[in-house]
Design brief:
It contains 11 helices and no strands. It folds into 2 domains: 106 residues, Helicase, Ruva Protein, domain 3, CATH 1.10.8; 119 residues, Cyclin A, domain 1 (Orthogonal Bundle), CATH 1.10.472. 31% of the residues are buried. The radius of gyration is 18 Å and the shape is globular. It is mainly alpha-helical and 228 residues long. It starts with a helix and ends with a helix.
Length: 228
């Protein structure tokens, strides 16, 4: 077993002999699953090629047995990243379930005025961009944390390196957010006078880090961040 796989299994608390939960066959005929399948197919069309049958089987079982957190748009990024390292259905199911429990507070069920991103992350840009604290929180948790940066680091090497760091301690997600904001500020092109702060912030949240050098720099920056 490769070192990375061993690390991920340990951090995700994957038990070697834990069985897949049973799912009633009638779930396939429910309106709930029909609606979720439509969302899933939209996501599949936007992702790198994935085995549709395998993805549907995993998501269906999870949605049927974990009703408090069924499939949400964007979560295919989580499955795609885990499948780069974990290759059996049982590990992917329990890994996905574990991740969903961790990121649930960052999703759409959390009220708008509930700030879950620490203030030290907001402080990175508060002197540079005037953006409402509540809006800042929502954008970062939905664009970055809720998909664990799957849209931000599009290369396999990049996203796996970031997950290596995050799985050591899930509070490292916040440090990655802060490091990404610092990277965005440092690499922002000359700002046009007509561009508002909200548009600048949106650009920051939409950045993509594709080179391994930049990935390494962001992780190094995150590691150097102190929170007190």
């Amino acid at each position: 077993m490769l070192l990375r796989e061993r690390l991920w299994r340990r951090r995700l608390r994957l038990e070697k002999h834990k069985k897949l939960p049973k799912m009633h066959s009638r779930y396939s005929d429910t309106e709930t699953w029909t609606s979720l399948l439509n969302v899933l197919d939209l996501d599949l069309n936007r992702m790198p090629r994935m085995n549709r049958e395998n993805v549907i089987r995993l998501v269906k079982r999870h949605a049927a047995t974990v009703p408090w957190h069924p499939y949400t748009q964007g979560h295919l990024y989580l499955i795609h990243t885990m499948a780069l390292v974990l290759h059996d259905e049982m590990s992917l199911y329990w890994g996905y379930t574990r991740i969903c429990r961790i990121i649930h507070p960052y999703g759409p069920d959390t009220p708008y005025e509930t700030n879950v991103i620490p203030d030290y992350v907001y402080d990175v840009i508060s002197d540079t961009i005037d953006v409402e604290r509540d809006l800042f929180d929502v954008v970062l948790r939905m664009r970055w944390v809720y998909v664990i940066f799957g849209q931000t680091f599009p290369t396999s090497s990049g996203i796996c390196a970031v997950w290596d760091y995050i799985l050591r301690d899930f509070s490292n997600m916040y440090r990655v957010c802060a490091a990404l904001l610092r990277h965005a500020i440092d690499n922002e092109p000359e700002v046009d006078a007509g561009v508002c702060d909200l548009e600048r912030f949106s650009e920051f949240a939409s950045i993509k880090i594709e080179s391994d050098t930049d990935v390494a720099g962001i992780i190094a920056c995150a590691q150097a961040i102190t929170t007190v």
